[in-house]
Design a protein that fits this description.
Blueprint: E1 2-5, E2 11-15, E3 20-25, E4 44-49, E5 53-58, E6 63-67, E7 72-76, E8 83-88, E9 99-105, E10 109-120, E11 123-135, E12 140-146, E13 149-154, E14 158-163, E15 169-174, E16 201-207, E17 212-217, E18 222-226, E19 232-237, E20 244-249, E21 253-258, E22 263-267, E23 273-277, E24 287-289, E25 293-298, E26 302-307, H1 310-322
C-alpha cells in the first residue's frame, strides 16, 4: 500500500496491485472550515505513513493523525506556519505504548507529539499525550530519523541532529560547498538573487548501516556526509538542474529526484551515475523505493510504479551505458 496527499487536503491509501483506494481521510479538506458552511481547501504539504497511521501537515499549519485501522482522524494543535515535514518514529518501549510523531514548520518549529488510541465505550479516539517543542533560527524543510536522533534539514544549508526524546541539539553542520573546504560562509552574502536559497536542505536520507547522511538542496546539490565524523563530507554527486525533492540511499546506490521530473541512481561509494529515469513526468514531488519498486508522483495527479528489482536496475544501467 502507498499513502498520498492531495491539493484538496485529503489523504488516501492505495492498494498498488488493484490501483484502488482502500481508505480516504478528509483531514485538511475541512481544516479551516469548522463551523462554516463553505469548505476551504488546504493542500497537504507533507506526509508520512507506516502501514497503520497516516500523518500529514497542511499549508495552513494544520496537523492530522489518521488511523487506518480504526478510521479515526485526529486533529492536533496546529503550527503557526506551513507544516513542511512530518515523521513517524519507530515504536520504542520507552514511549509506553505511545506513537511518537515529529513535525516541523517554516517558522523553525520542531515539535514531537506522543499519541495513542484509547477506547471509550464502543468508540476509539486518538488522544494526545505530552511532547516537546523547540524553535530554530531557520525554516525547517525536511526530517529524517537515525537511531535515537532526529535529523533536521533547514534553510540556509544547515543540518541539525537532535535527540529524539528531548530535541536537544547534538550536532550542527553546513552542507554548503564552501563549508567542507574551510570557508567561513562570507561568500553567502555576495550571491545573486537567483542563488538565494540554493543551499536550502530540501531532502534527507540516512543509510543506517554506515551512519551516512544523504542531502539534497534547492540548488540541486547532492552529497553524502558521515554523522560519525561530525558531518564530514564523504561524497559529492553531479548536481541536478532543478531543486531536489527526494533522496534515499543504501549501501550500493543513492536515488535522487528533482522537481523537473528526473530521477537519478548513482553508486554510493564512487558517486558514478548508474542510470536516470526521465520523460515520465514534467514534475516530481516525492519518490521512494524498496527492494522491488520505485514509486513517484507526477503530473496529471498520477502515481507511477517502476520495477526497481536488481534485475531491472541492472538492465537500466546497461542500457544507459550503451547509449
Amino acid at each position: 500500500t502507498v499513502a498520498v496527499g492531495s491539493v484538496s487536503g485529503r489523504t488516501h491509501v492505495f492498494q498498488m496491485q488493484s490501483r484502488r483506494p482502500l481508505i480516504s481521510f478528509a483531514a485538511h479538506h475541512s481544516a479551516r472550515a469548522l463551523g462554516e458552511e463553505q469548505v476551504t481547501l488546504c493542500p497537504v504539504t507533507c506526509l508520512d505513513y507506516n502501514g497503520e497511521v497516516v500523518v500529514s501537515g497542511g499549508q495552513d499549519g494544520s496537523f492530522f493523525v489518521c488511523d487506518c485501522r480504526t478510521r479515526v482522524e485526529t486533529r492536533h494543535p496546529p503550527h503557526d506556519a506551513q507544516v513542511s515535514a512530518v515523521l513517524i518514529l519507530p515504536r520504542d518501549e520507552s514511549y509506553e505504548g505511545h506513537s511518537v510523531v515529529v513535525s516541523g514548520s517554516l517558522d523553525g518549529v520542531v515539535r514531537s507529539t506522543m499519541v495513542r488510541n484509547v477506547k471509550i465505550g464502543n468508540d476509539t479516539k486518538a488522544q494526545r499525550a505530552k511532547g516537546c517543542q523547540i524553535r530554530l533560527a531557520s525554516a525547517v524543510l525536511c526530517l529524517a530519523f537515525h537511531k535515537n536522533y532526529i535529523i533536521v534539514g533547514c534553510a540556509g544549508a544547515l543540518v541539525l541532529v537532535l535527540r529524539a526524546d528531548t530535541l536537544e541539539k547534538m550536532l550542527a553542520f553546513s552542507v554548503a560547498a564552501d563549508a567542507d573546504d574551510g570557508g567561513d560562509g562570507e561568500e553567502v552574502g555576495e550571491k545573486g538573487e537567483a542563488d538565494r536559497g540554493a543551499d536550502d536542505v530540501t531532502a534527507l536520507s540516512v543509510h543506517e548501516g554506515s551512519s551516512q547522511l544523504l542531502t539534497g538542496t534547492r540548488g540541486g546539490q547532492l552529497a553524502l556526509w558521515s554523522l560519525d565524523e561530525g558531518g564530514d563530507a564523504v561524497q559529492r554527486f553531479a548536481p541536478h538542474k532543478s531543486p531536489i525533492v527526494a533522496a534515499q540511499c543504501d549501501e550500493n546506490k543513492c536515488v535522487s529526484a528533482s522537481a523537473d521530473g528526473e530521477i537519478r541512481v548513482a553508486h554510493t561509494r564512487s558517486g558514478a551515475r548508474l542510470f536516470s529515469l526521465t520523460g515520465h513526468s514534467k514534475f516530481l514531488g516525492a519518490v521512494q523505493y524498496d527492494d522491488t519498486k520505485l514509486i513517484c508522483d507526477g503530473t496529471g495527479a498520477s502515481l507511477v510504479a517502476h520495477d526497481f528489482s536488481e534485475t531491472a536496475a541492472e538492465q537500466h544501467s546497461n542500457d544507459s551505458h550503451s547509449t
